[in-house]
Amino acid sequence: MLDAEFFRRWMTVTAASVDREAERLTALDSPIGDADHGTNLQRGFTAVRAALEKEPPATPGAVLTLSGRLLISSVGGASGPLYGTLLRRTGKALGAATEVSREQLAEALRTGVDAVRQLGGAAPGDKTMIDALVPAADALGDSFAAARAAAEEGAVATTPLRARKGRASYLGERSIGHQDPGATSSALLIAGLADASGP
Ligand code: ADP
Ligand code: MG
Ligand code: MG
């Protein structure tokens, strides 16, 4: 079972990998965006880490809803409201339970991903974070490792796609040949989940 401590670890591990990969995320956002994705997320996860240290929420759901709220207020750009919605809606779906199973988390994550799809209007294949999140949520029913692999594959598979949503879509054909920054950061988020679950 996964407790609030596990969810705090998920957020902290993700904050560390966002720090490590910030330059790469911003570099990916340079040819097909406005070169701010790494700095946007770094600002957000720094705020999340600080808040979770200061006042650790008692339930998995509360860890995610607090984190989502902070991402909405601190990340900005397109990804702030989208990631904020993902975590808030996933957290809300977990309810007030003090421990949840991986299967329950998989179900909640699907709810969160659906909310992101509704907010951003992106479908799989549109070259967005959805391309990493949808396969990850599906694979999480099997294992953390399967979710990590599915998210990474989904992110890599955005390269040959033409963007249909977000800033990259303004480039039309010229968005082809570049990996989507948001799908890449979503793979980091899911990798953080696998890391938090242990070696
Ligand atoms: P901005 O594009 O406003 O500068 P970011 O650079 O932080 O915001 O985030 C860009 C990422 O957000 C993209 O790589 C893409 O994955 C994701 N994104 C943008 N628009 C959408 C959307 N409508 N639905 C889902 N994801 C989106
Ligand atoms: Mg950007
Ligand atoms: Mg921007």
Automatic annotation (TrEMBL):
Gene3D superfamilies: 1.25.40.340. Keywords: Kinase, Transferase. InterPro entries: DhaK_L_YcgS (IPR012737), DhaL_dom (IPR004007), DhaL_dom_sf (IPR036117), Dihydroxyacetone_Kinase (IPR050861). One of its GO terms (molecular function) is kinase activity. Residues 5-195 form the DhaL domain. PROSITE patterns: DHAL. It comes from the Bacteria. Signal peptide: none annotated. NCBIfam families: dha_L_ycgS. This is Dihydroxyacetone kinase subunit DhaL. It comes from Streptomyces cathayae.
